[in-house]
Amino acid sequence: MVAKIDANSCESCGNCIGECPACAISINDDDVSFVIEDKCNDCGICLNACVHGAITIV
Question: Which intervals hold domain 4Fe-4S ferredoxin-type (predicted)?
Answer without folding.
Answer: 1-30, 31-58
